[in-house]
Amino acid sequence: MTANDHLDLFKPQLVVIPCGSRKLGVPARSADMYVGSYHRACRKAADALRPDRLLILSARHGLLELDEVIEPYDTPHGAADAVTSQVLLEQATVRDIVGLDPVVALGGARHISLVRSVWPHVRTPLAGARGMGEQMARLAAMREDRDHL
């Protein structure tokens, strides 16, 4: 983490976490749809930050509230039918959340790139990690650090 990404001293207005490729096989709330370990680790770290708002960035649907019910899908970020930065900006504008600050994004490079297209000032505590193992360790540390505050 860099000094810009130190998260101990503020409460984010928004945290955006990635969806995941492992999903339930039936329609479900977005909070329940994604069952992979990476998504779950991001969700626990995001919850530990106690944001005013938490959204999931779905490769198919864009920004999802936790209670939105969606169908299972197989669209990865970067696919031809995946959500674009323009769609995200439109969704954020309609929801009146473009001006939120501070915003934190947890996830990999494609996820961060999309989030940054809407919130250029986004804090990215997983940036620079050298792989999934290091990202998972950072997510665990975020949970533990907040538990001790």
Residue runs with pLDDT of under 50 for 5 or more positions: 1-5
Please give the alpha-carbon distance between the first and last residues.
18 Å
Number of helices: 5
Mean residue pLDDT? 91
| Largest sheet: spatial strand order | 4-3-1-6
Please write the string of helix (H) and strand (E) elements: EEHHEEEHEHH
Characterize the overall form.
globular
Largest sheet: 4 strands, mixed
Total beta strand runs: 6
Give a brief description:
By secondary structure, the protein is of the alpha/beta class. The protein contains five helices and six strands; from the N terminus they run ββααβββαβαα. The chain has helices at 30-33, 37-49, 85-94, 109-118, 132-148, and strands spanning 14-18, 28-29, 53-58, 62-64, 69-70, 103-105.
Question: What does the model show?
Answer:
β3 and β4 form a beta hairpin. The N terminus is likely disordered. The relative contact order is 0.21. The protein has 149 residues and is an alpha/beta fold. 36% of the residues lie in helices and 14% in strands. Strands 4-3-1-6 form a 4-stranded mixed beta sheet, sandwiched between helices.
